[in-house]
Automatic annotation (TrEMBL):
<dbReference type="InterPro" id="IPR036291">
    <property type="entry name" value="NAD(P)-bd_dom_sf"/>
</dbReference>
<comment type="similarity">
    <text>Belongs to the NAD(P)-dependent epimerase/dehydratase family. dTDP-glucose dehydratase subfamily.</text>
</comment>
<dbReference type="GO" id="GO:0009225">
    <property type="term" value="P:nucleotide-sugar metabolic process"/>
</dbReference>
<dbReference type="InterPro" id="IPR005888">
    <property type="entry name" value="dTDP_Gluc_deHydtase"/>
</dbReference>
<keyword id="KW-0456">Lyase</keyword>
<dbReference type="InterPro" id="IPR016040">
    <property type="entry name" value="NAD(P)-bd_dom"/>
</dbReference>
<feature type="domain" description="NAD(P)-binding">
    <location>
        <begin position="4"/>
        <end position="293"/>
    </location>
</feature>
<keyword id="KW-0520">NAD</keyword>
<protein>
    <recommendedName>
        <fullName>dTDP-glucose 4,6-dehydratase</fullName>
        <ecNumber>4.2.1.46</ecNumber>
    </recommendedName>
</protein>
<dbReference type="Pfam" id="PF16363">
    <property type="entry name" value="GDP_Man_Dehyd"/>
</dbReference>
<dbReference type="GO" id="GO:0008460">
    <property type="term" value="F:dTDP-glucose 4,6-dehydratase activity"/>
</dbReference>
Amino acid sequence: MRLLVTGGAGFIGTNFVRMMVREHPDIEITVLDKLTYAGNADNLADLPVHLVVGDIADAPVVDRLMSKTDVCVNFAAESHVDNSLNDPEPFLHSNVIGTYTLLEAARKYDVRFHHVSTDEVYGDLPLTSTEKFKPDSRYQPSSPYSATKAASDMLVHGWTRSFNVRATISNCSNNYGPYQHIEKFIPRQVTNLLSGRRAKLYGSGENVRDWIYVLDHCHAIWEILQHGTVGETYLIGADQQLSNRVVLAKILSRMGQAPDDFDSVADRPGHDRRYAIDASQTIAELGWQPQYTDFDAGLIATVMWYQTHRDWWQAEKAAVEANYHKRNQ
Ligand code: NAD
Ligand code: TDX
């Protein structure tokens, strides 16, 4: 099988490509990645994969690569909500035009296409309820990021129904693990503490995220590619709902800091209150199950990864924090 992985030099894409090389060395992998600030070619440097540096919205490049593949998994996207509040344009380009460009080429060459999406397309849930997102929950995105991801999902639906593109979609909850960019919540706090800065909690910290270890997400995607039904949406989550305040307390404790050793900072505008995924349909249909269900163990492994991979993040740290600081002025 020839597999094209777009966005394969980012957080989840890197974990997916590394998993595939480890567990399915017979598969021929090409990565198409623009290497934005979030992509890092070094993540893949030791692997027998072909990296093409390019944009998923560049039709000639996409056409050439799609003509030579059997399957395409699309991880490529602008992925950070805070950045989308600051400047939405790159989100429209990569998430909407990029997905459209991939779909047109998948249609032309009849390539099996899997689109990696997010639970944020469903908006948020009240803090007090026990409700969870289901595959037929209403789309009501809150941010430019989630609005563009919702738009990309809709494009996939349209191309599947009208043009018979053999596509599936997965909507996953918050991932954590190695190779996540230090702008994101967990790695930001861990690297703040490792670099002598204080942790930063938005608003009240009561907002809840449903955490999944990145490899569980990657295994689910591989199951969908092998056994999923074209036209279907698969929800992926590990049922690990925790408030940001609780996650931060675990990080502080693990890293030997006092429980109150953090700054409460301005809240994110439009901040989604709670996400929760009901993955029962995915589990029933595919037999996939999350394996890394001990959040504390996964968090410790993640903290250790950032402790032992300073060279991966240190050069960027000051600029990422300066960027946050500028926005909060
Ligand atoms: P990331 O920001 O770490 O990586 C994105 C990658 O895509 C980078 O390597 C970047 O260089 C590349 N890219 C961006 N625009 C591109 C373009 N126009 N052409 C080619 N490459 C481009 O993101 P991530 O956290 O790994 O997320 C991957 C996908 O999974 C995204 O589609 C995201 O919406 C989705 N997702 C993420 C999470 C999460 O918790 N991180 C949860 C659910 C879904
Ligand atoms: O410094 C911070 N302090 C803080 O309290 C940061 C960066 C975040 N937060 C809060 C905001 C959120 O409630 O932590 C929570 C998680 O924030 P992010 O890491 O920015 O993730 P989120 O906005 O939930 O989106 C993530 O999960 C869904 C990914 O970035 C998306 O790509 C994915 O679709």
